[in-house]
């Protein structure tokens, strides 16, 4: 194994591989900064250019590009409140409020450092666990996957805290939206109003862009100030950056735990980062000393979101490499690259082509570090964008909204979906309804239905008595009900201990 | 933020209306699902049934719960959405400001639908900067030109990605 590790590094350090990785990183940086154009779009666009390349060169180019997209997606989430891709949505929650408070440098320092932690954790996880996890992945059946999906949903609903009931209603609305389209079991239309566009269901990208980005852009148009509303004028973003990096290191243990969640859930085919980011975020909130700060610029929230986002990519590679089962959309496209490079995923990647496997590990590690350094180098320019008057930013941001949603399936209908999601996002913000359960309901609805029917087809109702299913279901209930109850009790005690007028501001008045 | 009394009532009323809207949506979904074949309708019936129950519970909570139940909860969980909170929230903007913002926003997308990206983006940038931003003409023209060039260069020329094209052009 050690020989494979060294061989892999030597392959990556060849000038051609390094040059192609550099090119991939530059392209990934540019594409990742555009909302909607995530890593999977970049991979799909660049895949045809890899014909004729050596295997390691193919992955140096593609994985270098893909690894950077996650980091740059976090940048737009933090600075503009527009998630670069669906898996960056959790970063918006605490990154954007911090930017609005004039602490963009600190937010970037936190998210970039945790991204680096997550990326490096992911590659170590990948390197160590390839042979071991093969059996574990195969042991998970549809019933367990169904429970893991419900666990993700429960974590997100529990984030609603005192609005638990609203969180459940929003999650159900999300699930209802996810059911729109042709039913996978019978092929009948469900809730499509005989509209052809809806036959394929509602695409998640315009929903994310509208729910988070659209609502924020309208708020900017209303205020007409800069994104950063406070903060010492002329203060160096590098000081904030240093503070953020120090905080991220101080919260290193949380970063590692979140990375483990990201990598662990990344391993499970189909789960992807959309679930793991919220589980890590919920975990961070439940273990934080000040859970009330989540959603208002909590460093813990940013560390959890940043770390899990980068760790998940390495995790998703494990089933791709060892089983030939893609763990995410991006790895499904990468599977095409394997074929182009003349490689067969599976046991060969752990024996004959072990050097290529470890080369991939090195590429992800190097690309993550280079991406973080590149963004750090540009942090001065990037944070300056947040003090530009919004009248200058609005034309730029509405274009990003339009293109980010349109690129989902190159249809004007995607823009209509984005506009509806914008209205829903605005309403949710205005009247204090949580948006995240709605989003995750839409993301997970298809998975819930698929795993439910697979479980029933394979085991009828006997799967309900499976011990692992029961344990996971108890975990779901504990997550959904006990954790929020404990948080509320803790918060009430704290409020009772220090009943100052500011702390007693009723929830409804915090958003007049 | 102004006086407390109106704000204590408004969110609760909005919650009731939203809960009623959700209940209507779930009830409609349930009725539709009853017409689906068994396998296709099972999950929709479950989701809509649970949604109906939760919406009714929410309404009951608003009707019979302690006055301002949600409002009196400590700010310990609440909205974790990264949205605007506190005094900075832009909701206090008057109806005219809201109308203008929504008109610009809607206008951009209406133009996009009619004329496509490469016409709408520079025109919108120019108009928005001149009218709302009161920017100097040369700066607005430069911004619009750069926006057009960047869009054309990155999407059309470099990435060869299709841009939204208008129905009129």
Compose a concise summary of this entry.
Chain A is mostly helical and 512 residues long.
Question: What does this protein look like?
Answer:
The complex is a heterodimer of chains A (512) and B (169). The model of chain A is unreliable at 499-512 (pLDDT under 50). In chain A, strands 1-2 form a two-stranded antiparallel sheet. The longest helix of chain A is centred in the N-terminal third of the chain and has 36 residues, at 104-139. In chain A, a hairpin with a 6-residue loop joins β1 (181-182) and β2 (189-190). Chain A has helices at 2-12, 15-32, 39-46, 55-80, 89-100, 104-139, 142-158, 164-178, 204-223, 237-250, 252-267, 272-287, 299-323, 329-340, 354-377, 379-384, 390-406, 412-430, 436-459, 467-497, and strands spanning 181-182, 189-190. Chain A has 512 residues and is an all-alpha fold. In chain A, α3 packs antiparallel against α4, α3 (39-46) runs parallel beside α14 and α4 packs antiparallel against α13 (299-323). By secondary structure, chain B is an all-alpha fold. Chain B has 6 helices and no strands. Chain B is elongated and about 60 Å long. Chains A and B meet through α5, α8, α9, α17 and α18 of A and α1, α2, α3, α4 and α5 of B.
Taking the sheet with the most strands of chain B, its summary is: none
* Shape by Cα distribution of chain B: elongated
The helix/strand series of chain A, from N terminus to C terminus, equals: HHHHHHHHEEHHHHHHHHHHHH
Strand content of chain B: under 5%
Biggest sheet descriptor of chain A: 2 strands, antiparallel
The helix-strand sequence of chain B is: HHHHHH
Tally of strands of chain A: 2
Given helix and strand content, the structural type of chain A is mainly alpha
Q: How far apart are the termini of chain A? A: 61 Å
Helix content of chain B: over 70%
Number of helices, where a helix is a run of at least 4 consecutive DSSP H or I residues of chain B: 6
What is the subunit arrangement here? heterodimer
- Using only C-alpha atoms, the radius of gyration of chain A works out to 22 Å
Quote the distance from N terminus to C terminus of chain B.
46 Å
Mean pLDDT over the residues of chain B? 79
Shape of chain A: globular
Number of E-type strands of chain B: 0
Category by helix and strand content of chain B: mainly alpha
Count of runs of 4 or more consecutive helical residues of chain A: 20
Helical residue percent band of chain A:
over 70%
Q: What is the beta-strand fraction of chain A?
A: under 5%
